[in-house]
Amino acid sequence: MKKWMKYVKPYAAYFILGPLCMIVEVIGEVIMPKFLANIIDYGASGEDISKASAVIRKIYEIAGDRSPFIIAVMCAMIITALLMMIGGVGGAWYGAKASVNFAADLRSDVFRKVQKFSFANIDKFSTGSLVTRLTNDITQMQNFINMLLRMCLRAPGMLIGGVIMAILVSPTLTTILLISVPIVVVGAVLFIKKALPRFTEQQAKIDAVNSTVQENVTNIRVVKSFVREAFEKSKFGKANSELKMSATRAMSIIIALIPAATLGMNIVIMAIFWFGGKMLINGTMTTGNLTAFVTYIIQILSSLVMVAGMFIFMSRAFASARRIREVLDEEIDINDDNISEKDSKRAVQQGNIEFRNVSFRYYKDSKEKVLDDISFSIEAGKTVGIIGSTGSGKTTLVSMIARLYDPDEGQVLIDGIDVKNYSLYNLREGVGFVLQKNILFSGTIEDNLRWGNQDASMKEIRKSAAFAQADTFITDFNEGYETVLDQGGTNVSGGQKQRICIARALLKKPKILVLDDSTSAVDTATEARIREAFADELKDSTKIIIAQRISSVKDADLIIVMNDGKITGMGTHDEMLEKNEDYSEIYYSQVDRKEAI
Fold first, then answer.
1. Which architecture characterizes domain 343-596 according to CATH?
2. CA pair distance 19, 98, nearest whole angstrom
3. How far is the CA of 279 from the CAs of 3, 167, 265, 283, in angstroms?
4. In whole angstroms, what is the distance from residue 41 CA to residue 290 CA?
5. Contact predicate 572/557, CB 8 Å
6. Candidates 1.10.10.10, 3.20.20.140, 1.20.1560.10, 3.40.50.1260; correct CATH number of 1-156?
7. Rounded to two decimals, what is the model's pTM?
8. What is the pLDDT of residue 207?
């Protein structure tokens, strides 16, 4: 509960006023049947007024006759109904305000927590699952809180008030409740035990559907190019069918609960009419009191059905709350918690890089290392090429420079200082990445470029785009830099997307620039011009180029060859061609041997 109180305290007034308003409605619900009973008994049926309560006798004396008495009681009922309406509207309003604000703050905190996740943290949750937790799961909690605030006093209030009034009207008939109430309570407990695991399973199936839809829509071009629509339909159909079955299992309890509760209510009412009818014939109960008693019993049983309905929402909400807690309680393995005040102000100054005996595993219990005892150093301002087979650990290696992952063993140093002694913000501000998978966001081209420098002038933006060989095709668009990109940049080609991402990184002017196979979709001539731009525009920056093409790295000051998570050679192009078998094999596979000679 302490975890959730954080989201309740700022809106405590709403959480208090909502139930209080509902009490007004409850009081009206309780006294309305008594008003009706008095109209029937003393206004219409001619019962002896001396048997009525002191309040009713006083009203009768003021009215002076039965017709004015009926009108007076009806006026009291109208006033009560208006007060009930005000209370009901107020309760619903404050309940909505409390639940919506609770959900908004919780959603904001969960999103901020996800933003702090390292790659290792994100690997524990699928994208679809995180989307479901941020939307559907929080909505389930919001709905439960809204219902709870409206029912937490209304249902118990109606139950307690109804029982008290029923006892006052007929203690004999009230004994019927001693049989029905325990049955309802036992049924509710059994319902919770059955429903909770089923709703948890349902939310997991929603995760699977979301992941399938997101993956399909994001990669629709690949699906169509490989004519895999039928496969994707089958894949979605399976996930959708599993969700349907899970939802049916969860809803089957609800489907059975409501009719069972209604059946129980009707049985109790039939019993009351049976025994109450005999009392009416014997003259031990008036018609009005029997009518009022039946109304109170309906109120009592209705309040129990409301409680059952709350259990339904509660079961789903508890399942969702547990999933949200998993995100909020996730321990972030890469953070600034141990950074001193002095270290928090440190920024990357030059761009010297050193790896000391670095080893890394994605799965800590795995015997196989992704990186194994990696050691090398790079001087500031130098250009380094990293080449190797697919899966050799190149991307994982450079990810450690910006602490996207931390090594299991060894150290990564920048300017002679362990990267763990930089704040994440300052460290990543000093490192620019053009990732293997180029990501653009919905918005204009200018908006995307400003990720590199929010305060850049239009002249600086165009200059960076020109260096990245992007300005020409951007200005060819009708809207130029105001051209709106679809999510993921799907309305530009792969080569255009890469050049926009390079321009974005150039605009940042980082001390260290990492290019992870980022020119694979551009021709060699364009790539050569981009490399020239790096030499001119970022001559003082350390540049790391991961590539599959020898032409991308042959002019680098240092070339690192990797294989199976290990460095198999380091040196210049000529040195590696002469001494390193892995490098020469890659080189001659790409260049005709006679041409190379």
1. 3-Layer(aba) Sandwich (3.40)
2. 11
3. 55, 15, 21, 6
4. 10
5. yes
6. 1.20.1560.10
7. 0.69
8. 77
